[in-house]
Design a protein that fits this description.
4-stranded mixed β-sheet
Length: 187
């Protein structure tokens, strides 16, 4: 389906471009959210009449997003979650959790603005992008740990799961040796 974009849509195009997109993308996202018009002669004429107002509206949204970015960009948040000794979380940290974390800090974003491909399932320091506008992105850091003290150690660069990995390796090697009937001393 051919559409006229009413704002910049990621890598698809900018304001005023006529592009071809998949029918489902147009029907389920672009048209219902007012981000595009079907590419017809009537809509092209309507777009040409309203272009100046659309550009002003887009500039206002961008400046608003840049104001939010000033307070949000490069901030770090500590997230305390239960996890195994190996660092695997019991559960995950998903976009809705990030929205809740930011809301607790006084920032308002939606789940659609959180650019995360998959939920975070391990302890550690993770970087997440927040898409405030098509041209404005903020980066936050999530320090996911089992406690505040552990988060501080992770922030200093310490790998809090290193000992657990060594213990697991030793247990696995011992298990294999026992299965083969060998003792550690025989090595």
């Amino acid at each position: 389906m051919k559409v006229i974009l009413l704002e910049r849509i990621g890598k698809h195009g900018t304001l005023g471009e006529t592009i071809r997109v998949r029918d489902g993308f147009a029907r389920n996202f672009l048209l219902p959210q007012g981000k595009a018009l079907r590419a017809t002669k009537e809509n092209q004429a309507r777009f040409d009449r309203e272009r100046a107002a659309l550009e002003v509206r887009n500039a206002e949204r961008k400046s608003s997003a840049e104001e939010i970015k000033v307070g949000l960009d490069q901030r770090s948040f500590i997230v305390v979650r239960q996890a195994a000794e190996t660092g695997q979380l019991y559960g995950s940290v998903a976009a809705r959790d990030i929205v809740d974390i930011l809301a607790a800090a006084g920032e308002t974003v939606t789940r659609a603005q959180v650019d995360i491909n998959a939920p975070i399932k391990n302890l550690g320091v993770h970087t997440v992008e927040i898409i405030l506008h098509a041209d404005v992105r903020a980066t936050i850091t999530l320090n996911i740990a089992r406690s505040e003290e552990e988060a501080l150690r992770q922030a200093k660069g310490e790998d809090v799961t290193a000992n657990a990995r060594e213990d697991t390796f030793v247990r696995e090697v011992s298990s294999v040796l026992e299965d083969e009937g060998m003792d550690r001393e025989e090595l």
